[in-house]
């Protein structure tokens, strides 16, 4: 197996569990974002166990079987079921009943759980046992409950139970009574080492883009270079291309969300800032509904976005990219057209979104528009391909073109779970555009204050009460900023419905 970069501590922890198995049984839940390396880490424990001649039993949650009670347990126990004959009669009946192999009627959950514990204990008495359960978020509920029951009772039996669970999926393991290991993004040096070990051959600018966009996520570090080799450097709006695997990992939850939430997220992804009110206003235009912050709740629950004060941020830059890529061209056009209206009092931003809307409609129209300043700003952010003319121009504008007021791909949305260091990337100072924007807002607010607050790094996450207040405020603002004219028409008045 390829070495795991930057996970020395975590690997040592799991190997410690395996090495101590003769002394005591233990359980651990490994938590983290998609692609962060949970399965890879479990793989390291399996290697150690095999080297130590432990019996290894594995199972993995499968999305299509989530609604089949005990399907996961069946997967896990199949190799051991031959020994079910030796179980006490009632436990045997309950367990085999759960698998439809005996009796009728509903199996008694406690007896099923007890039977599993007995069966595992008997197996471990013959040979110490490592049980690895991956993608627990997709297991059926009854199986997860049995695993929790077992995890809480491992003491003297030589059994190690390791479970990997993706963020943003509430399960009965959330009670906190099973020890957890949280995986955050790789440290910068480890991320660089992983990228370079893959021999991606990227130029300096693109390498920096990949490191920045991956925000320490190993899957992104492995896959982004592949996407770059396969296709374009970045699309007309500056997003890096994604592989299907990345899209699946980062936009997996999107399909479960209500249409209004999806519309809102697309506008937020297309937006060049973090203001919730802007996203709500644009979202209202594209969905035709009066959106409040409530529309965001399913995305917050799914762990796709975070809300701090009035700033809406994606949990990972690639969540944003994946949402943008997954939308059809028509939807993207509508999102940019709506944002051009939302930013109609900011010439730079309005022009940028108008141009992006046009670019999505017709590449040949986009070409001459690309000569306008706002799009040059984007190409300048494409690293390797920035023409000298653009770089000079950026310098000449006092760095303005490089501020987060433009496309905030860098790390503005970076917030790797548990990765305190990553979060700081959101701590940008308010840019001139932020200040200008704030100054244009309704009078009582003092210019720049909101932008400054929105940009503060590492502010602790406020609890539900605050979100309730936000929802109210969002509702008011969202309503105030309802579309003034036909939203689909877009700012250029050429109609938003003909996207493709
Ligand atoms: N620390 C690491 N060093 C090198 N490669 C890694 C590391 N962690 C994960 N990977 C690789 O990144 C990809 C995603 O990791 P994976 O374990 O599948 O993530 P998860 O299970 O959390 O979704 C895999 O190809 C894996 O081999
Ligand atoms: Mg995995």
Summary tags:
adenylate cyclase activity; nucleotide-binding; AAA_16; binds magnesium ion; five-stranded parallel sheet; ATP binding; 2 domains; two-stranded antiparallel ribbon; binds adenosine-5'-diphosphate; single chain; Rossmann fold; about 500 residues; P-loop_NTPase; alpha/beta; 23 helices
Description of the structure:
The structure is a single chain. With 500 residues, the chain is α/β, with parallel strands linked by helices. It has 2 domains: 8-183, Rossmann fold (3-Layer(aba) Sandwich), CATH 3.40.50; 257-427 and 472-489, no CATH class. The protein is 48% helix and 8% strand. The chain has 23 helices and 7 strands. It has helices spanning 8-19, 38-51, 71-77, 89-98, 109-126, 141-151, 188-197, 204-214, 218-230, 244-250, 259-270, 276-287, 297-301, 317-326, 329-342, 347-361, 363-369, 373-380, 388-396, 420-423, 432-439, 449-455, 464-480; strands at residues 26-32, 55-60, 129-134, 159-166, 180-183, 305-308, 311-314. Strands 2-3-4-1-5 form a 5-stranded parallel sheet, with helices on both faces. The chain has a two-stranded antiparallel ribbon with strand order 6-7. α6 (141-151) links the parallel β3 and β4 (159-166). α12 (276-287) packs across α15 and α12 (276-287) packs across α23. It is globular. The protein starts with 7 loop residues before the first helix and ends in a 20-residue tail after the last helix. Bound molecules: adenosine-5'-diphosphate and magnesium ion.
């Amino acid at each position: 197996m390829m070495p795991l970069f930057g996970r020395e501590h975590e690997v040592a922890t799991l190997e410690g569990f395996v090495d101590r198995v003769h002394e005591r049984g233990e359980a651990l839940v490994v938590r983290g974002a998609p692609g962060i390396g949970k399965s890879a880490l479990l793989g390291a424990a399996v290697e150690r166990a095999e080297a130590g001649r432990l019996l290894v039993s594995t199972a993995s949650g499968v999305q299509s079987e989530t609604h089949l009670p005990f399907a996961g347990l069946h997967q896990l126990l199949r190799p051991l079921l031959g020994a079910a004959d030796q179980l006490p009669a009632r436990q045997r009946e309950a367990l085999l009943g759960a698998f439809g192999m005996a009796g009728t009627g509903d199996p008694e959950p406690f007896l099923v759980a007890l039977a599993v514990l007995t069966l595992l204990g008997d197996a471990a008495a013959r040979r110490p046992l490592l049980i690895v359960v991956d993608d627990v978020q997709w297991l059926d509920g009854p199986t997860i409950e049995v695993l929790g029951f077992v995890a809480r009772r491992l003491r003297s039996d030589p059994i190690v139970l390791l479970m990997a669970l993706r963020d943003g999926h509430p399960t009965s393991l959330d009670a906190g009574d099973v020890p957890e290991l949280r995986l955050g993004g790789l440290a910068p040096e480890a991320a660089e080492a992983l990228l370079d070990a893959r021999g991606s051959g990227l130029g300096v600018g693109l390498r920096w883009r990949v490191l920045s966009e991956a925000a320490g996520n190993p899957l992104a570090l492995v896959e982004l270079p592949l996407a770059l080799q396969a296709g374009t450097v970045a699309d007309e709006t500056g997003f890096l291309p994604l592989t299907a695997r990345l899209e699946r990992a980062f936009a997996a939850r999107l399909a479960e969300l209500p249409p209004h939430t999806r519309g809102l997220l697309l506008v937020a992804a297309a937006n060049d800032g973090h203001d919730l009110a802007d996203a709500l206003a644009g979202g209202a235009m594209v969905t035709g509904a009066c959106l409040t912050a409530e529309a965001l709740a399913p995305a917050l629950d799914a762990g796709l976005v975070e809300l701090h004060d009035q700033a809406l941020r994606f949990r990972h830059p690639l969540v944003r990219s994946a949402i943008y890529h997954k939308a059809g061209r028509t939807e993207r056009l509508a999102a940019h057209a709506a944002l051009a209206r939302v930013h109609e009092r900011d010439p730079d931003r309005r022009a940028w979104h108008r141009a992006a809307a046009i670019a999505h409609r017709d590449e040949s129209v986009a070409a001459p528009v690309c000569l306008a300043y706002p799009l040059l700003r984007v190409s300048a952010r494409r690293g390797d391909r920035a023409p000298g003319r653009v770089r000079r121009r950026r310098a000449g504008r006092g760095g303005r073109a490089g501020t987060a007021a433009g496309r905030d791909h860098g790390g503005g949305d970076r917030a790797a779970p548990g990765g305190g260091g990553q979060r700081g990337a959101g701590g940008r100072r308010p840019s001139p555009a932020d200040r200008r924007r704030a100054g244009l807002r309704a009078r009582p607010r003092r210019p720049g204050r909101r932008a400054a607050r929105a940009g503060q790094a590492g502010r602790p996450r406020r609890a539900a009460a605050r979100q309730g207040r936000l929802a109210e405020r969002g509702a008011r603002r969202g309503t105030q900023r309802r579309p003034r004219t036909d939203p689909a028409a877009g700012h250029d008045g050429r109609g938003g419905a003909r996207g493709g």
